[in-house]
Write a sequence for this structure.
């Protein structure tokens, strides 16, 4: 099964842009506009790379990561935060073992594609 990428962000323009960039690199991409929607996708069996925004209404990225772990969805999933925040906040301290990378927006598109391909290669 080809692993894919799930982009989680409440900003439709970010979802569109990141999806477009990664699909142009021949990667399979899904999107979710909230933490709750992300959890629904994972519950349905998604396996792959999750690019998670930190600042989202209702359930932020860190709370979503916590739920992913608590619900047992972390197997065969790699999580990278993709955010405009300069530095991780204190919520990351308890969750850093579950987050592989902290990618800041704006990002270099070539670097994002390279990282996505590298991280997907970690999943068998």
């Amino acid at each position: 099964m080809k692993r894919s990428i799930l982009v989680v962000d409440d900003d439709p323009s970010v979802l569109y842009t990141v999806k477009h960039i990664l699909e142009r690199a021949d990667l399979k991409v899904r999107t979710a506009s909230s933490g709750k929607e992300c959890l629904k996708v994972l519950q349905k069996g998604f396996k792959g790379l999750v690019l998670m925004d930190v600042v989202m209404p209702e359930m932020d990225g860190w709370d979503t990561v916590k739920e992913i772990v608590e619900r047992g969805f972390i197997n065969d999933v790699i999580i990278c935060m993709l955010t405009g925040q300069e530095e991780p906040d204190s919520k990351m301290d308890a969750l850093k073992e579950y987050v592989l990378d902290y990618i800041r927006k704006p990002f270099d598109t070539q670097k994002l594609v390279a990282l996505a391909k590298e991280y997907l290669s970690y999943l068998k």
